[in-house]
Amino acid sequence: MQLLSELKRMIFERPAFAGLFVFLLIVSILPQWLIDMIIYRRDLIEGGQWWRIITGHWVHLNWQHMLLNTGGLLLVLWVCPKWFGRWQGIVFFIVLCLVDGLGLLIFNQDLWQYTGVSGVLYGLMVVAFFYSPFYSLWIRGLATGIVIVKVLWEQTPWYSDDSISGFINASVAYDAHLFGMIGGLGLILVLELKRFFSRPAYEN
Questions:
Q1: Is residue 20 domain-resident?
Q2: In what helix (H) or strand (E) does residue 8 lie, and over which residues does it extend?
Q3: What is the pLDDT of residue 162?
Q4: Residue 10 within any structural domain of the chain
Q5: pTM of the prediction?
């Protein structure tokens, strides 16, 4: 009961991510002809349908795929600060969709079609862990570091996650995780630079 109460409080304090959760659920039940209009497809993007760079992340292959990613979104909701769960979080979500999609388009020429929000989630996780008000500095640093190391490990030949591929019945686009994480680190850099330069200057 206490866990449920805590979850309700977090949803109330972070309405943007709660709304995003509902939005992704709605997208998952859209008719196929609408899905075909927003899914990431390289040939259609190169033909001028640039919105797919962003909207392609909203589409999931199946309910298993959706379940994994919404679980990640709930983790972000659980650890993120209040301000991150409001309009700023939606702005970051759109920015990360754009960064991730452009990364795939420019650097992953062999990827013809892509679905899923997992790459964006890795970016959101990095930011959420880094600024979480619920944990000490070393725990936040450790959690952020684990996400970074895990994504980098995915880029090596020693990484294998056949269980996830089997669960969602598709191969995992690990490059999307990398681009999403880079986008998240970029957001942290921008926020820290903004905070640094907005500090008042004191004269002796």
A1: yes
A2: helix 2-13
A3: 73
A4: yes
A5: 0.90
